[in-house]
Amino acid sequence: MTNPIEINNLYFKYNANSDYILKGVDLTISKGEILALVGLSGGGKTTLLNIMCGIIPHIRKGEINGEVKLWGKEIKDLKIIDISKKVGIVFEDPDTQLFLPTVEDEIAFGPENLMVERKEIGNRIEKVLKMVNMEDYRYENPNNLSGGQKQLIAIAAILAMEPDILLFDEALAQIDDDGKKRIKDIILNLKRGGKTIVLVEHHIDTLDLADRVLELQNGKLREFKGW
Amino acid sequence: MIKGFKFDPRTKLTVVLCISTLGIIINDIFSLIFILVLTFLIAKFFHVNIKRSFKNIKKLLYLIFIIAIIQSIFSTEGKALLFIGGFKVLSTSGLGKGIQFILRMMIIIFSAAIIGTSNSREIIQGFVQWGLPYDIAFMVALGIRFLPILTEEVKDSLIAIQLRGIEINNIPIKKRISIYSYIFTPILAGTILKAEKLSIAIEMRGFRAYYNRTSYLVLKMSKWDYLIIFISIILTAYIAIINFTR
Questions:
Q1: Residues in chain B, pLDDT under 50
Q2: Where are the beta strands (DSSP E) in A34-82?
Q3: Domains and CATH numbers, chain A
Q4: How many of the other CB atoms lie within 10 Å of CB of B187?
Q5: Handedness of CA B180, B184, B190, B196 (dihedral sign)
Q6: CA distance B129 to chain A (A)
Q7: How far apart are the first and last CA of chain B?
Q8: How many CB contacts within 8 angstroms connect chain A with chain B?
Q9: Domain span holding position B29
């Protein structure tokens, strides 16, 4: 069976740097798995996540060697548009992910781009707002929400696209305990639905939902044995 | 009908287009005053908060006045009104042109405030349903969205400077300009970085994934919208014809 993500002997360095940030990363993630990545700041976790969703090498450039495959296809050969249909990523900063005047517009944006039917978009908006417990904010301007609420909307916007792989880049950092619990439940539900999830996290309390926790150290992945 | 009624953004765009056109083609000062008064009334009709709009553009109004004065100084035709050292500083024609400029700018600004009563998504949809490609309408709206971000960046940087003990309002203008030049680079770098992150987020949400896209929001015009569009176009055409045939 083809795995959603397969990485073999991956080396990467940014054009501006002389040193490789990833030095021989090997990783296979199976369908329905939750993988957590930990490591020091600047260790390359976000870079690895950006490679998994094609931002590198398609948008951000650098020297990349090795194999990165999504469902058996080389990421270099896939267009970013095709990747976006299958992979959803939630970034750390919600302010650079929200750009429309209402929460409803924000959530509808992704499915609209994917040519989902109007009625189905309406259903998805209702569903994801209920999931993140933000139904009362449907017609609010995202700019008027708190950081945590904005992040919940950013997550809802990605969930509405129903991607097969979900990447969370420290996306839970700004969310309060209640919100975190809710998101953890959502992630577990998504896993049950066969979605593949990769979390980049610093907080130890979020790691308990992961099937595997790997640490990125000195550009290589290894089993995480605690801080 | 008016209370609680939401006009279609296309109606507002048509009205703004008509008022701005009149503001540009008419030269007579009294007619421009009439158009400005009409603009205020129409803006009020569309629930524009005139007082708040005045507050928002206060600094811009100063700039408009300065430009009008400069324009009147360099326009030397007509009877001289003010001499400084034998040099004609203000003439009847210069004064007229200055007033015309102020009135025109106010007509354009306050009519544009009518568009502000719809959100950017509705305006994008209005343009799209008029036949403009979504990509272009979306990019224009995104550009407008960036203006408050830029203002926020400037404010944050100025606060950071003030927290380091510099009273920006109490220092001489020359020094103030040099402080502004210091913060210019980080603001520009920060804005470019934010723009890049935003564009990545947009791409990762399937922007341009297909040649077409569906739209959850669909605008529908009511009979009142059609009526207002009809009246606006007829009235604009009438005033324009009168203006050109007089």
A1: 1
A2: 34-38, 62-70, 73-74
A3: 5-223 (3.40.50.300)
A4: 16
A5: positive
A6: 15
A7: 37
A8: 88
A9: 1-118+223-246
